Automatic annotation (TrEMBL):
One of its GO terms (molecular function) is hexosyltransferase activity. This is DUF2029 domain-containing protein. It is a multi-pass membrane protein. It holds the Pfam family GT87. Keywords: Cell membrane, Membrane, Transferase, Transmembrane, Transmembrane helix. It comes from the Bacteria. The chain crosses the membrane at residues 42-63, 143-164, 176-207, 213-241, 253-275, 315-333, 340-358, 381-402, 414-433. GO terms for cellular component: plasma membrane.
């Protein structure tokens, strides 16, 4: 028996699909009936998700007001305890944007080129607004810079929500799981990560719609903003190896990879040629750094001092190779070919687990992938509860470092918060692996499952858009 295509069925009602949502729906009359007729209304699932996105981001912006009121004037204890820290205003003042310097040419910038271009453009807009509305000064300019960045991140978040809702056409309500996320509320304006998350999400939609070149271009642009979107290419290759039409799928992967290389090169080459030292700063910064905040290695160094050498590159590479082999094995040995987002989630989670730094906002990288890979409120709540705990603890730990006379969080407590965060990610990863090995439990797949049965020749050239993401 062949698996029915996801878009052959009607839209999935969350109250009938998710056990936790179904139980909660008893407070409002119970799950939607099996014979209910869902008429089209203006308040579609995507529009509801966008409204929730706007509300969540507005709450996040309000939560930043204790710091915004004084323009993030200093990294003092009050900023950490209020949990309203953001890299944005500090980098405006500390990387020369406030002084009219040009990124990479005039100043070192430890960010990929496309993110640097976004920062430079935002600085120009902020300075124009400051010239018109005032007041003068670098502090006031950094507030304008933060506000412009917050608008851009809000637009990026809206696109992420739409892309998530449209990746699997019969599951438009999945976008709401991104929109209502505590991770989005807390982390949207800490840095520029949502821009790369948007490009990665659009790349996934393009791939599922059988547009490999568009997907590749978006992956290349995403990698030029944050490197992690390049991890999409590995799962694409693994799935091509499992496809009945292996030659055709490998051709699509080759097209996507070529497009990604072209896009990444087109963005990076001008800066690499005209400002080589500035362009290399990002790579040298990440090469030379040691175990940094949030990373698995930082927790190990606290709990077992002296266990790790000063240079941990060999540990990072070795761990990455082990996890890569494990993911490849899962992809090739699973009873049915996994979904793209399942493998991509595992790849990005593995990258974060072995990376030298794991900043609070990196949870945004996993958010749409986790929702698409395992759209279950219980599992997402377990993971994000761990992220919220870590978000609170990390700022209080930094407050302790800046004011040791008034300790709030000890080194050991901070290390345990990192381990809790790791456990939350591993929980989702374990659920995803279980769904891969037992496809009948995957909430995104229809109930009937095909196990290693070759498709008829005429069915091998189906559009990829008909396949689950």
């Amino acid at each position: 028996m062949t698996r029915p295509r996801p878009n052959d069925a009607g839209p999935v009602a969350p109250s009938r699909d998710d056990p936790l949502v179904g139980a909660a729906s008893q407070w409002v009359g119970g799950p939607i009936g099996r014979r209910a007729v869902l008429r089209r209304r203006w308040w579609s699932p995507i529009r509801i998700a966008l409204a929730v996105t706007a509300a969540v981001l507005a709450l996040g912006f309000l939560a930043d007001q204790p710091c915004r009121a004084d323009g993030w004037a200093d990294r003092d204890t009050a900023m950490w305890t209020a949990a309203c820290y953001s890299d944005v205003p500090f980098l405006y003042r500390e990387r020369g944007f406030a002084d009219g310097l040009f990124a990479y040419w005039d100043t070192q910038l430890e960010y990929p080129v496309l993110t640097g271009a976004l920062m430079q453009g935002s600085a120009y807009v902020a300075q124009a607004l400051q010239d018109v509305f005032g007041p003068a000064g670098a502090i006031a300019g950094s507030v304008w810079f933060f506000d412009v960045t917050a608008v851009l991140m809000a637009l990026s978040a809206a696109v992420v929500v739409i892309a998530t809702a449209r990746t699997v056409p019969r599951r438009p309500w999945d976008g709401l799981l991104v929109a209502a996320s505590p991770v989005l509320l807390l982390s949207a304006n800490v840095n520029w990560d949502l821009f790369a998350v948007m490009l990665c999400s659009l790349a996934i939609v393009a791939w599922t719609r059988d547009r490999p070149v568009a997907a590749g271009l978006l992956i290349g642009l995403g990698a030029a903003a944050k490197l992690y979107p390049a991890l999409l290419l590995g799962p694409m290759l693994l799935l091509a190896l499992r496809s009945p039409d292996r030659r055709g799928e490998l051709g699509s992967v080759a097209a996507a990879t070529s497009a990604a290389v072209v896009a990444w090169t087109a963005v990076n080459l001008p800066v690499a040629v005209w400002a080589p030292s500035g362009w290399r700063a990002f790579f040298e910064f990440n090469r030379d750094r040691g175990a940094d905040f949030g990373s698995t290695w930082f927790a190990v160094d606290i709990l077992e001092p002296g266990l790790l050498p000063e240079r941990i590159d060999s540990f990072v590479v070795g761990s990455a190779v082990v996890l890569l082999v494990a993911i490849c094995g899962l992809a090739l040995l699973a009873p049915s070919p996994p979904r793209l987002v399942q493998l991509t989630f595992l790849a990005v989670a593995a990258f974060l687990l072995v990376n030298k730094v794991w900043s609070p906002q990196y949870a945004l990288w996993l958010l749409p992938l986790a929702v698409l890979a395992r759209p279950r409120v219980r599992d997402l709540a377990i993971w994000q509860a761990a992220e919220v705990v870590y978000f609170v603890v990390v700022w209080r730990y930094l407050a302790t470092l800046y004011d040791p006379a008034d300790p709030m969080v000890s080194d050991r407590t901070y290390a345990l918060a990192i381990l809790l965060r790791i456990a939350g990610v591993l929980w989702i990863a374990a659920m995803v692996v279980r769904d891969m090995m037992r496809p009948e439990l995957d909430p995104v797949r229809p109930v009937t499952v095909t196990v290693r049965r070759p498709a008829p020749a005429r069915a091998r050239h189906r559009r990829r858009g008909a396949a689950p993401a």
